[in-house]
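Minutes, project check-in
Item: structure for the 358-residue chain
Input as provided by the requester:
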Amino acid sequence: MLDLITPQPLHRGDKVATVSLSWGGAEDPDLIWRYQLGKKRLTDVFGLEVVEMPNTLHGTSYLYEHPEKRAEDFMQAFADPSIKGIFSCIGGNESIRLLPYIDFDVIRRNPKIFIGYSDTTVAHFMCIKGGLSSFYGPSILAELAENIEIYEYTQENLKKLLFETAAPGIINPAQKWTGDYLEWLPENKNTAKKLSDNNGYELLQGSGKVSGRLIGGCIDVLEMMKGTTLWNTSDFEGGILFFDTSEDSPEPDYIEYWLRNYGSQGILQIINGIIWSKPYQHKYYEEYKASIIKIMKELGLGGLPILYNLNFGHSEPMCVLPYGRLAQIDCDNKTFSICEPGVKEIELKDCFVIIFAI
């Protein structure tokens, strides 16, 4: 069962760092405008001072060849006391290569906000190993640099989880969603994506209310961590497991393979429930549902609460999920709640105050 440190909230004027932990496209000539737009949004919308780490903008080729430099940026961002939060530029597919270069004590000694999604799942599990609650949520190049403006739903959830110290409570479905793909070209930045009505959450199985601490990520990426030092079955005990499928849209057969593996490890038998994101562009929407129900029946877990079609991960707009915080699935009302604050102010009792009298 997870017992993670809650980081301090962000405030207007705080300094935050951007990191490229996987794909290094933020500095590529055809995408630097996109990075600058996401950076500007953090300043204009949230009042943050944004800085880059030494290698954040060293480009795709260099960062692919130097995973140790990406890890160095990550460690330096945690160690720097002037930096209050860390934002992932974008995901990718090989941040697992950072693992040999991570000092988990640096994370443990310097807890602060860290946010990203997709391949950033690996970095979140590094935070878990370092004892820190991090946030599965928007990245610089994608959601924060969204055409025209950041979606209101995304903005609201960022403020609730990263800036406010009250428990967020019920996380309602987004009223609209988009699966439109527009190339990341400067001429498209003022073109709005087509929005569609969202059909809300679907209950696949289960009844009543269940609670547990949030753990999960991009299901494709989680496969890369199995068998590593980041993977501890006990971390899932009593949890609410969240799954997100990537823009690669894995075929339903793979969902079945992977869920059988979670069952064979005994993980599905020790969790309290699952929340599942809206599939990318709604591809395999019905097929995923059928595969999930099939495997739960195989495993004798037909009563495990599963809520489907939530707005997180590879879904626009998106909410923010805090690792290790208590959440609840209400099957009867088809609601999902985050029951604890994502951040908290340090209280006097949490500190050691030494007064020297002369």
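Outcome recorded: Residues 176-338 form a domain with the Glucose Oxidase; domain 1 fold (CATH 3.50.30.60).
No further action items on this chain.
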